[in-house]
Write a structure and sequence with these properties.
six-stranded parallel β-sheet; alpha/beta; 7 helices; Rossmann fold; globular; binds magnesium ion; 6 strands; single chain; binds adenosine-5'-triphosphate
Amino acid sequence: MNRPECDNNKLYNPEFSKHGYIQVYTGNGKGKTTASLGLAMRALGRGWKVLIVMFTKGGNDYGELISFSQLSPDLKDKVKIIQAGLDRIVYSQNINETDKKIIEQGWQSAKSAIKNDEYQLIILDEANIAIDLKCIQLDDMIQTLKNKPEDMEIVLTGRNAKQEIIEIADLVSEINPIKHYWDKGIKARKGIEF
Ligand code: ATP
Ligand code: MG
C-alpha cells in the first residue's frame, strides 16, 4: 500500500519516505508506548492508515483509547485499535490460558494485517512483553517482520527486546530511567501513565 504524498521542503527527501522501517522502543524508562502513540498521531496527520495492537492491555481505562474514539471522522476511519489482552496486569507468574489466547489472537490479526499490506504504520505495543511471555513465538515474529511489505513501518514497544529483534530492526531506542518517581512509590497515574 503506497504512502500518501507529502509536501516537499528542503530537509525532506521524498525518496526516503517510500521505504518503511522496523523500529523498536525498549528499556526500563518511561516513554515507549507514548512515543509510539505520538508517531501514530504524526502518521495519521499525513493521511496514513494506522493499526495499533495493544498486547496485554484490555478494558477501556486508557486515555489514548478515549482520544482515538473522539477523533474527527476522517482520522477515525484511518486508525484501527486491537486490544489483545484482558483488563488486568499480566506477568510470567500470573498469566493464564485466557490471557495467552487473547494475546495470540491479537498476533494473528496483526500478522494478517502485515501480510495483506493493509496499513502504512503498524504499532505492536508491548510486543516485546508478549514475546517474553511466550505468547508470540520469536521465530514467527522475526519471519513476519522480515517479510513485511517494503513500504510498511512497524514499531515494537516494550521492555526486554530480544537480541534477535534488535538485530533485524532499523532503529532501536532504549529508554534509560535516569530517574523515575516509581522509585519514590508513585504508581501509575490517570492521564500520565494510562
Ligand atoms: P508510557 O506508556 O508512559 O510511555 P512505557 O510504555 O515506557 O510508558 P512500560 O514499560 O510499558 O512503560 O510500563 C508501564 C507502567 O508500568 C509504568 O507506567 C509504571 O506505572 C509501571 N511500572 C511497573 N514497574 C515499574 C518500574 N520498575 N519502573 C517504572 N515503571 C514501572
Ligand atoms: Mg508501554
